[in-house]
Amino acid sequence: MTKTLNNKAWFLVLPVFAIVAFSAVLPLMTVVNYSVQDTFGNNQFFWNGIGWFQELLDPSKELGGRFFEALWRTLLFSAIILAIEIPLGILVALSMPREGWTVALCLVLMALPLLIPWNVVGTIWQVFARGDIGLLGWVVNHLGIDYNYTGDALDAWATIIVMDVWHWTSLVALLCYAGLKSIPDAYYQAARIDGASRWAVFRTIQLPKMRRVLLIAVLLRFMDSFMIYTEPFVLTGGGPGNATTFLSIDLVKLALGQFDLGKAAALSLVYNLIILAICWVFYTVMTNVDADRERVEA
């Protein structure tokens, strides 16, 4: 018996494709158009070809040097965030209860930081870390540590990192908790019969079963941390100096502060390509490792 395929359902998603094309593709084409042009004001544009891209990728140029400095800062920030939040999120998920009324309480508490808007998070920590009226700044200064996130680059970095860890570790913990809850009890029963230690259970049962949710957590946290803008902009404004001027902040300064639309458009396209390339590498490496493990186990 031949099965007839009905593709009429695809017509139901055509409006979605149309909306995506209007809201994403058309603005992208506008950015591409600006990236190959220059303007001297009065809405007069002149063809510049790939000139902005050449200047952007040349570290000896002013634009290129500015771009690479902001890029290294952003990559360093993302690496620190992943190195802290992924292990911490796993530890929190392992510590959360599996049953009882405390499960709902823990889930609500974990979700609270995620519900706060990004600009409010920056404002909260801007006040919280002040040395004169902020609880954090007052306590640190009274411990004998000269703390001033607006005047010291190391203090500014530490404050932004702690702020991001407070804001987003809950996301990693909730994803890992969902992965842990999906593990059947039969695995734990077999481990108890074999006399497996707590570390052995984590290494051979829990971590492999969390691999897929960890992939999602790593990708989400990398993209969020690499594109971070609102929180550090509200907290430090990119300062002191350019110490916390990440790529996103530098892009906004270039586009809105200096109104260099051509340079900003070229920077945004390269920025987007970097994010796509790194995410593709993350996804490819982690899925290949997962596939190799499943092949070995089979």
Automatic annotation (TrEMBL):
Gene3D superfamilies: MetI-like. GO terms for biological process: transmembrane transport. Keywords: Membrane, Transmembrane, Transmembrane helix, Transport. InterPro entries: MetI-like (IPR000515), MetI-like_sf (IPR035906), Sugar_ABC_transporter (IPR052730). Residues 71-282 form the ABC transmembrane type-1 domain. It is a multi-pass membrane protein. Pfam families: BPD_transp_1. It is found in: Cell membrane. CDD domains: TM_PBP2. One of its GO terms (cellular component) is plasma membrane. It comes from the Bacteria. Its main location: membrane. The chain crosses the membrane at residues 12-36, 70-94, 101-128, 156-180, 213-230, 264-285. PROSITE patterns: ABC_TM1 (PS50928). Belongs to the binding-protein-dependent transport system permease family. This is ABC transporter permease. It comes from Microvirga aerophila.
